[in-house]
């Protein structure tokens, strides 16, 4: 799984233990997801290109490094992806934000797009698709397919927890997409919940059931 990056940083793993804990309140859960999203983006953006710029310090003039005009777009998958968006956006405040909404067809059980809104120049941007969970992979696959149909081809997927089944499905459908996760869990249960997982991320983020 050369394109799968599991982040084992101690701070991420520490915070993930509280995210998994069923006793964690909605407020704390939301804050922790935000913080882990922010920590993960350091690794996700490791390969962004830099360029030399001349900077005048209070002492002298020097050559420093800045991002070389890379255009980034964050695409949270509604609704749970919104929980990670703010933390990522804090570190990349100039990034544009697109949104994609999907629902599961009760007959086919396939993910169906019901909403999509992206920057006009999405084909020129590096795309970070964000969603806390990668379970069956159906939503991630459909979201990335929809983004590619709009012309984008530089896409990375970022999530907190993934099941092996979801990773396999996403790799099979989009082998060119790097996958960044904070934890690779054991399996899916008969209801397609990740085991051991963290429950329903959307419900825990927004206090619904």
From TrEMBL:
Keyword Glycosyltransferase: yes
RNA-binding among keywords: no
Superkingdom, natural source: Bacteria
Coiled-coil positions: none
Pathway info: Pyrimidine metabolism; UMP biosynthesis via salvage pathway; UMP from uracil: step 1/1
EC code(s) of this entry: 2.4.2.9
Residues given in the record as 5-phospho-alpha-D-ribose 1-diphosphate binding sites: 79, 104, 131-139, 200
Alphabetized InterPro entries for the sequence: PRTase-like, PRTase_dom, Upp_B, UPRT, UPRTase/APRTase
UniProt-annotated binding residues for uracil: 194, 199-201
Cofactor remark from the record: Binds 1 Mg(2+) ion per subunit. The magnesium is bound as Mg-PRPP.
Catalytic activity reported: UMP + diphosphate = 5-phospho-alpha-D-ribose 1-diphosphate + uracil
Domain Phosphoribosyltransferase: 6-208
Gene Ontology terms, MF aspect: uracil phosphoribosyltransferase activity
Cofactors demanded by this protein: Mg(2+)
Activity regulation (UniProt): Allosterically activated by GTP.
Keywords in alphabetical order: Allosteric enzyme, Glycosyltransferase, GTP-binding, Magnesium, Nucleotide-binding, Transferase
Similarity section: Belongs to the UPRTase family.
PANTHER family: ADENINE PHOSPHORIBOSYLTRANSFERASE (PTHR32315), URACIL PHOSPHORIBOSYLTRANSFERASE, CHLOROPLASTIC (PTHR32315:SF4)
Role this protein plays: Catalyzes the conversion of uracil and 5-phospho-alpha-D-ribose 1-diphosphate (PRPP) to UMP and diphosphate.
Identification of the protein by name: Uracil phosphoribosyltransferase
Organism: Corticicoccus populi
Biological classification of the source: Bacteria, Bacillati, Bacillota, Bacilli, Bacillales
Gene that encodes the chain: upp
């Amino acid at each position: 799984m050369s394109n799968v990056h599991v982040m084992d940083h101690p701070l991420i793993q520490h915070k993930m233990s509280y995210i998994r804990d069923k006793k964690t309140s909605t407020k704390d859960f939301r804050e922790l997801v935000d913080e882990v999203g922010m920590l993960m983006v350091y690794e996700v953006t490791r390969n962004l290109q830099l360029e030399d710029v001349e900077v005048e310090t209070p002492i002298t003039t020097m050559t420093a490094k800045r991002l070389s005009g890379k255009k980034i777009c964050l695409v949270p998958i509604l609704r749970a992806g919104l929980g990670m968006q703010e933390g990522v956006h804090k570190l990349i405040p100039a990034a544009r934000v697109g949104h994609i909404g999907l629902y599961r067809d009760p007959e086919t059980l396939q993910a169906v797009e019901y909403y999509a809104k992206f920057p006009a120049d999405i084909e020129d941007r590096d795309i970070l698709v964000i969603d806390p969970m990668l379970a069956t992979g159906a939503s991630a696959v459909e979201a990335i397919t929809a983004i590619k149909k709009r012309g984008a081809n530089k896409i990375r997927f970022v999530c907190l927890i993934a099941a092996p089944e979801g990773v396999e499905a996403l790799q099979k459908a989009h082998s060119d997409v790097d996958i960044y996760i904070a934890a690779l869990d054991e399996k899916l249960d008969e209801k397609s919940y990740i085991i051991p997982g963290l429950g329903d991320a959307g419900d825990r983020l927004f206090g619904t059931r």
